[in-house]
Amino acid sequence: MKLKYAVVGTGAIGGFYGGKLVQSGQSVDFLVHSDYEQVKQHGLKIDSVMGNFHLNDLSVFNNTADMKPSDVVLVCLKTTHNYLLKDILPPLLHRDTLVVVLQNGLGMEADLAKEFPGLNIAGGLTIVSAVKVAPGHISHLTYGKMSAGAYQVNDSKVFNQVCEDFINAGIPVDTNDLMLSRWRKLVWNIPFSGLSVLFNTTTDKLLQNEDSKQLCQELMFEVIEGANYFGRLIKRDFADTMFGTTELMGVHSPSMKIDHDNKRIMEIESIYTRPLKEALAAGYNMKLVAMLEKQLKFIQSQQ
Amino acid sequence: MKLKYAVVGTGAIGGFYGGKLVQSGQSVDFLVHSDYEQVKQHGLKIDSVMGNFHLNDLSVFNNTADMKPSDVVLVCLKTTHNYLLKDILPPLLHRDTLVVVLQNGLGMEADLAKEFPGLNIAGGLTIVSAVKVAPGHISHLTYGKMSAGAYQVNDSKVFNQVCEDFINAGIPVDTNDLMLSRWRKLVWNIPFSGLSVLFNTTTDKLLQNEDSKQLCQELMFEVIEGANYFGRLIKRDFADTMFGTTELMGVHSPSMKIDHDNKRIMEIESIYTRPLKEALAAGYNMKLVAMLEKQLKFIQSQQ
Fold first, then answer.
1. Distance of CA B212 to the CA centre of its chain
2. A15, A46 in Cβ contact below 8 A?
3. Cα–Cα distance between B151 and B217 in angstroms, integer?
């Protein structure tokens, strides 16, 4: 089954995954905002540890009204722009379109399902480190498998085909319970994203100091407990796994840190506020996470 | 009764209080570290909202071995230097000397009592805002009464005379249970000192933002609960009083912020670590305070 893809939000993540799909022969429409002219004229340049490549003559748009429906829509916006989706998505949808949310945090699928009742929705999480170094120019620094999962799909054939297409494009994919994957990623994101912003530092520094490392661990334990209340079992020793992963990253800036450094609004809502609400609704108050959330909101307010 | 005073640590606080005592006719020896030559030659210049004054021909020392015992020793060091007291104090003590700890935090009197069994010890807390703007030059920005209290004294006459001498010097003094005063001050210090360092900001900014204000309140409530476990009753509405006080301060940098800006070691141990230990020993875990303590220790480690 040959699927037609659309990428909504051609930043580092959208450009990289969309680019890999094009490279492997898939048909992909790109919705591009700030880099439209550059990508239209000069395509996408991707420096990747998996091999550099340059794609020209891409199907590029700066307005979804000009686009045709696709079989699969990859949502690669920052979650801070998800309020735009109610206008962006309709022209891209046919009856069976699958929307795949490639974002960090929690609650995006639930919001979409509420806005578009009956929509086919899946999600994917990556540990990939990719940054846009210039308009239309993406640097992909580390490998990272994608954990994909269905949220609500009428027919799993399209979802399965998407996973296969990604694998064919060179992206390792495992499929898992989506909410479990999202909470597992939060176990990493909540301590390391927030503290790297708060301290204007990198993840290696957070590991080298006993106090910040202990704080990371306490935050991880709270998120793990939150996940467990939410109904997704994560064991406490997953914190050790995350410390190991982080050590391997070396000097690393989480995407929230990069956003903040570039004066972009941070994804506090999806990475902190929403998980806090969901855990609280399930009966657990992540107190330290709530403190970090307030600290980040203060920092955001001062920018 | 005429008392002979010694000031240990002639920074902003020691210089201001010692200076006021001299101005009112008391006999004061000053132990001066970094500004010794300046103060020896040019005295102390104090710009104060209570009236500017300049004191020459002070009794100035840079080594306690050269000093004679005093009736009252005002300890005005930063608590980060209290490890020096075991060497500094002995030459200054006669049998009835009263040591008055004019420092922030908790546990300093207990440490002294352990190091010098039977020593007469009192303490005092101030809300005074004073900074050293140059060697031997102090700027006193706001009035602030002192809350004094005995810790262990054989005879309260000397303590009472000290309070009277301060009042005669123009410093309003009330006497209160010392540990209650220390915990009340911590209700202010713990949120505002730490967060102003963490966010590189001033107290007015912390009040203007809803998230940081709420965080201040939550930290205050924890400290109040800690005090109550410790056996010192503070009501929750004392937090409102502290917000009111802070509002009146306008643009204000807590002394910990000034220390950090000037690359001095922060008083984390006396203002955070010790209160945490005391509350925990009394059965209460101040979790948010513990998080802020770790954050400050990380920041300190990166300086």
1. 25
2. yes
3. 29
Residue recorded with tokens 């990380």: B298
List of residues 6+ apart from A34 with CB closer than 8 A: A135
Mean pLDDT rounded to a whole number for chain B: 96
Give ∠ CA A265-A270-A272 in degrees, rounded to 5. 95
Give the three-state DSSP class for A83: helix
Q: Is the pLDDT of residue B141 over 70?
A: yes
Euclidean distance between CA atoms B285 and B276, whole angstroms? 7
Q: Could you tell me the two tokens for B267?
A: 């008083």
Provide the Cα torsion B251, B256, B257, B260; round to 10°: 160
Distance, in Å, from the CA atom of B185 to the CA atom of B147, rounded to the nearest integer, reads: 10
Q: Two tokens at A252?
A: 């690393």
- CA B32 vs CA B12, B38, B44, B267: distances in Å: 12, 10, 11, 20
What digits encode the pLDDT tens for the residues B70-110? Answer: 999 999 999 999 999 999 999 999 999 999 999 999 999 99
Check: CB of residue B200 under 8 Å from CB of residue B260: no
Alpha-carbon distance B125 to B255, whole Å?
A: 13
Separation CA B213–CA B211 (nearest Å): 5
Instruction: Look at residue B20 and give its three-state secondary structure.
Output: helix
Task: Give how far B212 is from chain A: nearest CA, Å.
Answer: 6
Look at residues A107, A133, A110, A65 and name the one whose alpha carbon lies nearest to residue A268: A107
Q: To the nearest whole percent, how much of chain B has pLDDT over 70? A: 100
Instruction: For residues A79 and A92, give the distance between their C-alpha atoms in angstroms, rounded to a whole number.
Output: 19
Calculate what percentage of chain A has a pLDDT beyond 90. Answer: 92
Contacts of B199 in chain A (CB under 8 A): 295, 298-299, 302
pLDDT(A144) > 70:
no
From start to end of chain B, where are the E strands? 4-8, 27-31, 44-48, 53-55, 59-61, 70-75, 93-101, 120-126, 129-134, 137-142, 146-152, 173-175
Q: Which two tokens stand for residue B266?
A: 């922060």
**Least Cα separation, residue A114 to chain B (angstroms):** 28
Closest C-alpha to A279, from A102, A121, A106, A108: A106
Q: How far apart are CA B159 and CA B157, in angstroms?
A: 5
Residues of A in contact with B214 (CB under 8 A): 294
Q: CA-CA distance, B83 to B112, in Å (whole number)?
A: 10
Q: Give residue for tokens 């810790």.
A: B151
Which positions of B are annotated as active-site residues? 185
DSSP code for B67: P
Based on its alpha-carbon atoms, the radius of gyration of chain A, rounded to whole angstroms, reads 19
